[in-house]
């Protein structure tokens, strides 16, 4: 098998590990700590019910954290649909662009979750950060780097019916 197949499998495994690994939570929360229940918890929690010194900062931290978790979910969903294109000999240009977007979504989700965690600690909220951000960041950066190195495999023959437009 070509190396690109192994890299694609490795990126897929990192994305799955990042979705199933323990994520951020609040102390005493009863969510399962993997990606989907954690995102649902942060979507529904209200800042006045979180024990903290500064409810305004907790509200900002909850919103930033949920934005990061939502980007992680969106990137994982796009990966399920389009990551297989990285293993093919030639890639469709539109699917290639979607894979680039999913890489950026995964990579940008990590600083948002980390900043939300930092803001929660600054506000005095009892937040616990899991290790799911490590494989998520590795998968996002790996996808971006792999896409940059795979640009020569992108199919440029889009205007087959009218070659004069190429």
Subunit organisation of the chains:
single chain
Strand content: under 5%
Order of strands across the widest beta sheet?
1-2
> How much is the radius of gyration in Å?
19 Å
List the helices and strands and how they pair.
Elements: H1 3-20, E1 25-26, H2 35-44, H3 55-82, H4 93-123, E2 127-128, H5 133-149
Antiparallel strand pairs: 1-2
Short structural description:
The protein has helices at 3-20, 35-44, 55-82, 93-123, 133-149, and strands at 25-26, 127-128. It is mainly α and 166 residues long. Strands 1-2 form a two-stranded antiparallel sheet.
Notable traits:
166 residues; mainly alpha; two-stranded antiparallel ribbon; 5 helices; 2 strands; elongated
């Amino acid at each position: 098998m070509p190396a690109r197949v192994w890299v694609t499998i490795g990126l897929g495994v990192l994305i799955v590990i990042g979705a199933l690994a323990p994520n951020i939570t609040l102390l005493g929360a009863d969510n399962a700590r993997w990606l989907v229940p954690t995102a649902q918890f942060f979507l529904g929690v209200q800042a006045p019910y979180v024990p903290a010194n500064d409810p305004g900062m907790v509200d900002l931290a909850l919103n930033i954290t949920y934005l990061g978790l939502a980007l992680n979910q969106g990137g994982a969903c796009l990966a399920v649909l389009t990551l297989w294109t990285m293993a093919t000999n030639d890639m469709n240009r539109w699917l290639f662009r979607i894979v680039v977007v999913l890489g950026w979504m995964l990579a940008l989700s990590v600083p948002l979750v980390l900043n939300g965690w930092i803001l929660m600690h600054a506000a005095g909220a009892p937040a616990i950060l899991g290790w799911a951000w490590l494989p998520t960041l590795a998968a996002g950066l790996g996808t971006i780097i792999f896409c940059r190195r795979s640009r020569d495999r992108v199919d440029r023959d889009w205007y087959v019916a009218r070659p004069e437009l190429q």
